[in-house]
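pasting for ref
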Amino acid sequence: MKCPLISADECSVILNQIDQLPWDAGKSPDSEYDNLKHNYEFIIGTTGFDFDVMDRIMGCEFLTTRSMPKKMGHARFTLYEDGGEYKKQFEPAFYGGDTKIRTDLAICVFLSDPDTYEGGELVLDYPSGALISLKEPQGTLVYYPAGVMHQIKPVTSGKRFSFDAFIESHIQDPQQRDILAEMESACAEMESLEPFSDLNLRMANIKHNLYRLWMKT
């Protein structure tokens, strides 16, 4: 799923700031997989930063109504250049120590204009055999199940900047999330047509009972 999140002008402000950051070589969760990852990263929280991309993401209605986010973690800016890539890989079920987060959804915000770099596609490899290749307009937010195998194709020219993070959802089961998202949409439409009708109230009651049944606080 994807949606516009940040304007091109705002992306330019971010890029001007992060291009000067002290980037570190990207590391895999397990050192034995480091040969898969050839990029640079800047972990959020290691220094002050004026533009809070995390707040913008957590305030994105398109995302929140579909993902029911509980918290976001392992947030970082990433840079790929000079052939940098991330070979086909998986993500751990959890990140972090004392502030552990379950990786239900992966987030990528494309910060670079796609015309300024070659390669760098985000490729999602679903268990069904479907391959989805993404190289999105500047400022686009993409999110997908973190359990899907994925890779970043080599960047053969230019620089590919992105913001990446993971979301732990209040609703762990993706099918349950989809049902609740559909219920939210249907209830909102029904309320706009027949506010406070008996049917509307009954549907809202069912929706909240499903939240009680499935939500993990």
